[in-house]
Structures are given as structure tokens and as C-alpha cells.
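Fold Annotation — chain and its backbone

Fields — amino acid sequence, C-alpha cells

___
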Amino acid sequence: MMSGMNEIEDRKTGDGPVVSEGGRSPFTLSTGHAASVALGAPTVEPLGPGQRWSAGRKRAVVLRLLAGDSVELLSRELGLPVFKLEQWRQKAEAALDSALKEREANAAEDGQLAAALRRVGELSMENELLRSRIERPGPLGRRRSR
């Protein structure tokens, strides 16, 4: 009986956990922010007057978008238009694609570099053999009698 009273008092004062329908807290339902915090997505606060969006702050916003936060929610929370958030996400995805393509291009370039280095080694050996042949005293080759 006493534990039931404590739960009621906790709900009145807001000290204990508040559970609503479906097992979700009202905080999660109203803002959706708890989901991104639980996933480890960085939190971003709205800018103050005279502040600009740094690359790090934009990265944090894009990471929240990629973690599944609603674009509309972030727009309201940060005071940014939806199109700007979408633009940042598209730029981040394009940069990710180009970074992955660059890695594949490097693998092809590595193969070309290895082939070129092999050819340089072959030519160096040939050059050394020819140089040693020229520096030897005597005729360079056998002459045939006519």
C-alpha cells in the first residue's frame, strides 16, 4: 500500500518515470529528441544572435537527420527552413559517395602504379646489362665472315 502511494506522489512531483501508452515517455512522443540522444547522435542547440553555422554544427545536424530525426522537428527546434536541412543532407550524402568512389579509384591507380614500377625495374636491369656489355674491352659482337 505504501509503495502505491509513493508512485502516485512521484507522478505528481515528476521525480519518477512517467510511462504513457505504448511504453514511451511523453518526452519521446512530443519531441522525438530522446530517440536521437539514445542512439548517440550529437545534440545541437539553436544559434544565438550573430552566430553562424560552423561545419561541426552542420555535421551534428546531418548526423541527427541520418540517425532518423524528423526534418520537420529539427527545422522547428533549430529555427531553420526544411529546404536548408535537406540541402545539407544531400551535400553530406554526395560527399560520402565521392569519398567511397575515390577509394575505388585509388585501388585502380595502385594497380597501375605497381605495373609501372615493375616496368621501371625491368628497364633498369636491361640498362645495367647493356652498360656492362659496352664497358667490356673487346669487340661488341662476333663478326661473321663474308
